[in-house]
Write a structure and sequence with these properties.
The complex is a heterodimer of chains A (about 350) and B (about 500). With about 350 residues, chain A is of the alpha/beta class. Helices cover about 50% and strands about 20% of the residues of chain A. Chain A is flat. By secondary structure, chain B is of the alpha+beta class. Chain B folds into two domains: about 10-215, de novo design (two linked rop proteins) (Up-down Bundle); about 260-495, Heat Shock Protein 90. Chain B has eleven helices and seven strands. In chain B, the strands form two sheets. Chain B has a five-stranded mixed β-sheet. A two-stranded antiparallel ribbon of chain B has the order 1-3. The longest helix of chain B has about 90 residues, at about 135-220. Chain B starts with 9 loop residues before the first helix and ends in a 7-residue tail after the last helix. The chains are: A alpha/beta (about 350), B alpha+beta (about 500).
Chain lengths: ~350, ~500
């Protein structure tokens, strides 16, 4: 009788194991089936309403994850498929012209482009417009006849904000060096000069109000920690009187920080950056090294660009300019800014 | 006969079990097949896009070669091939293309549109070639090349993307396949164990009724028909078997009961027959002895009677009396040997015997009679008391110089009459009495034959056994007691009595 109980228990147990094993096998096989599906970025049987091609500068910090999140958010909302093509800066215009041809051949519904004020680009954009493809420009404003909307920062306004921030952080006296990320150089153009740079004009207009404030030097550099470090070292050596630096790129700022630390000059400098690079925000949070950073809402730029296209497609009209506001983040508001950012990121996820 | 094709029948159960096992195996086979199929589909999915894209690429190359062939040679075959190729390509792309939101879909859409544009540019190139407008056809051919390159770019991108996906997918697949192998192994082993257990349970269930029947049969084989009925709740056949078994048991039991009764009857009958033959034997031996003694007693009887007459002539009265008693004794012996008599006859016979003894021993041997007259008429077999009295005299008193007394007492009770013959002789040990009264004496035992003869005849006459007793103590004489029933079952006929002598 005892044996018989054991046999019954064994039978039930083995039956359960069999069922579990079958279930597990089925589950694993389903997983196998899903393997490549799961790896596809986004599987939805929804049909795309519109197809946009977006051409961006590969090395520009503006086209960060936040920017892409903004693009995706509005695109998803309006059922728009966005094909993002990043172009290397070294041969940007040539490559872009080719890609604009591609967009036209591929009969896309819209183009968003990181543009420069270049006749050939303008020509292609006009060609696209003639084919009924609306173009939204980022980075530089182009003549209204070609594009429908410009979305971005007003560089003069940016100069004003930078000037005010430096004046505030230096207490109204000091000498400023600007280390700016190099833009695409047009053929025959050596560099952007102080005279042509709207941002520099903005800074100068602020500094005019302060007797002891002056813009001593502007350096245009390639993006990257090491290049910025080299330029900063040069400035320290060549301009010993300088006590404020404004860097337009987060990564470059981090390079400059390293130079200041190495030379033990942290206390002597007011360092202001642009963009919400994690490292920069971290230094602001710690205090002492980086005083402030000027941030703009990259996500908003992404959203505005797609939204402008959608409005134009659906209503036939769109705003010609969308200026994205700027904000100064210093040790007083860095924590709340970071919190907000991480919340927005989580929400986005 | 009850219907057997029910679910509860062994056959039904066996079919059910077999079908279950077959079903289980089938399900597992289908299951493995399904999993294999899923695996194959996955592999197909991993590579179908590569194959599809390389087909497009290959076709496009051939189309371009044909286009270039036509543009350089104006060959109509080339043009034909070009047109066929482009048509095929368009269909190929249209069938695959869908306008989803996914990157792949976008690239496919672009490829489809680019192929359209390629066709337009190629057509223009062909048209301008026909018009011999070299500049224009070259320009459009250049554009077609550019578009072609865009298409190749997309194909490369898609292939790269697919390779990325596939390499990750492959690792996942390998991991899952390994896991699946382990699971399959577990399933196979577990299935073997499970099937064995099920088979064990099924066979146990099937064998259990046999055990019950076996145990019951064992009990019956030992002769125990009082076992409980075998009750089986499982398969119908077993139920029927159990019922049949129980019926068989009951039937055998009743049959054996009848047989027992019959055997008992037969034994009784045999017993009767035995008794009868024994009685016959006794009678035969009595007859023999009677026949043997027929010559002498007659002679003696006549002689004694001559002696009586002689004694009367010679006036020897005592001798005459003696001879008369002797003559009566002989006469009684001869007359009653094979018949029946009354107690009174027996008493008188003893008295004659006493007369003879008295003539021989005078006062040394004394007889005392204490007779209840009411019992005298009771019937009894002859020659019972005299041999007992003779026994008392010979074994009890003859060796005593001073002699002794033999007392004969008769008392009538309610259901029987008690006759007691008591002597004052030397007595007997109990062991001797037991030997004498032994019902199956050893052959060499010579003493007690007469007493046993008397006892046996009494028992046969009265058809009962508790009639004859002897008791004694050494030195205090022997008392023999006969209790004769007042109501006598008559067995005279059975005794086959022969006529007594005159």
């Amino acid at each position: 009788m005892y044996n018989k109980k054991i046999i019954y228990v064994l039978t039930i147990v083995s039956g359960i194991i069999l069922l579990i094993a079958l279930g597990a096998g089925f589950y694993v096989s389903t997983e196998i089936n899903k393997t490549s599906e799961a790896l596809s970025l986004y599987r939805d049987n929804k049909e795309a309403g519109y197809h946009i091609m977006m051409f961006l500068d590969k090395s520009n910090q503006m086209y960060s994850d936040a920017f892409r999140a903004g693009v995706n958010e509005v695109a998803k909302e309006h059922n728009i498929a966005v094909e993002l093509i990043s172009i290397d800066r070294s041969n940007y215009i040539e490559e872009l012209l080719d890609r604009l041809d591609l967009a036209m051949y591929a009969k896309v519904d819209g183009i968003i482009v990181h543009a420069y004020l270049d006749e050939r680009i303008i020509g292609k954009i006009e060609q696209a417009k003639d084919m009924g493809i609306p173009v939204v420009t980022l980075n530089e404003d182009l003549p209204l006849r070609s594009r429908i909307t410009y979305v971005g920062i007003n560089r003069y306004n940016m100069g004003l904000v930078v000037g005010e921030t430096i004046a505030k952080k230096t207490g109204g006296s000091g000498k400023l060096a600007v280390i700016e990320q190099k833009g695409f150089l047009r053929k025959g153009e050596q560099n952007i000069t102080k005279k042509t740079d709207l941002m520099i004009q903005g800074i100068n207009d602020v500094f005019e109000r302060y007797d002891d404030l002056s813009l001593e030097v502007v350096r245009y550099i390639e993006r990257g920690v090491l290049r910025a470090g080299t330029v900063a070292t040069e400035i320290l050596q060549e301009y010993p009187s300088i006590n404020a630096i404004y860097s337009t790129d987060g990564q470059s700022t981090l390079g400059i920080v390293q130079v200041l630390i190495d030379n033990n000059r942290v206390k002597d400098f007011v360092l202001v950056s642009f963009g919400d690079n994690e490292g920069v925000l971290h230094y602001i949070g710690k205090g002492d090294i980086i005083e402030a950073t000027i941030v703009t809402d990259y996500k908003e730029i992404g959203k505005s660009a797609v939204r402008a296209f959608y409005e134009y497609k659906t209503t036939g009209v769109a705003k010609s300019h969308v200026n994205v506001p700027m904000q100064v983040v210093d040790e007083n508001n860095v924590e709340s800014y970071m919190k907000e950012k991480s919340e927005a990121y989580e929400k986005n996820e | 006969m009850k219907k057997m094709n029910r679910i509860g029948s062994i056959r039904g159960n066996l079919i059910l079990y077999s079908l279950s096992i077959i079903l289980l195996m089938t399900v597992l086979s289908l299951y493995s097949l399904g999993i294999m199929n899923r695996y194959r589909r996955q592999i197909d999915t991993m590579f179908e896009k590569h194959i599809y894209l390389s087909e497009i690429e290959e076709n496009l190359k051939i189309i371009d070669q044909n286009l270039l062939g036509f543009l350089s040679s104006k060959s109509s075959t080339r043009l034909n091939n070009f047109l066929i190729g482009i048509d095929k390509l368009e269909k190929q792309v249209t069938n695959f293309y869908n306008t989803g939101l996914v990157n792949d879909d976008l690239m496919m859409k672009n490829i489809a549109n680019l192929i359209n544009q390629y066709e337009i540019e190629a057509d223009l190139a062909i048209t301008y070639k026909r018009q011999r407008n070299v500049q224009e056809y070259y320009k459009h051919y250049e554009r077609s090349i550019k578009i072609q390159n865009f298409i190749y770019d997309y194909i490369t991108q898609m292939n790269e993307q697919q390779i990325d996906i596939n390499s990750v997918a492959y690792l996942e697949l390998a991991k899952h396949t390994k896991l699946l192998q382990v699971i399959t192994m577990v399933i196979v082993i577990n299935l073997i164990v499970f099937s064995l257990l099920i088979v064990y349970l099924i066979t146990s269930k099937m064998v259990k009724p046999f055990s019950k029947l076996y145990n019951a049969a064992e009990e019956i084989a030992k002769g125990n028909f009082d076992t409980e009925d075998v009750i089986i709740h499982s398969d119908l056949e077993f139920k029927l078997l159990a019922e049949a078994f129980n019926n068989m048991k009951r039937s055998i039991s009743s049959h054996i009961g009848e047989l027992k009764l019959k055997v008992e009857m037969e034994v009784k009958l045999k017993d009767e027959q035995m008794k009868n033959s024994k009685m016959g034997y006794l009678l035969d031996s009595a007859k023999l002895s009677a026949l043997q003694s027929q010559v002498n007693p007659h002679f003696l009887y006549n002689t004694i009677n001559a002696g009586v007459q002689l004694s009367i002539i010679e006036k020897a009265h005592k001798t005459g009396q003696f001879l008369e008693s002797m003559s009566r004794l002989f006469r009684y012996n001869l007359q009653k040997a094979n018949g029946e008599c009354t107690l009174e006859d027996e008493i008188n016979n003893v008295k004659d015997y006493y007369d003879l003894l008295k003539a021989r021993f005078r006062e040394r041997i004394r007889f005392e009679f204490d007779i209840d007259n009411k019992a005298l008429s009771l019937e009894m077999p002859p020659m019972v008391l005299q041999p007992l009295v003779e026994n008392s005299y010979i074994h009890g008193l003859s060796d005593l110089e001073e002699g002794g007394t033999i007392t004969i007492t008769v008392r009538k009770e309610e259901k029987f009459a008690r006759i007691s013959i008591r002597d004052t002789g030397v007595g007997m040990r109990k062991a001797i009495i037991d030997d004498i009264l032994c019902r199956e004496p050893e052959k060499k035992q010579t003493f007690g034959i007469g007493i046993r003869n008397v006892r046996d005849r009494l028992e046969l006459f009265y058809h009962k056994t508790d009639i004859f007793y002897m008791k004694s103590k050494l030195g205090e004489g022997v008392e023999t007691i006969i209790e004769i029933p007042i109501v006598v079952k008559r067995l005279k006929k059975n005794l086959g009595v022969t006529k007594c002598l005159d």
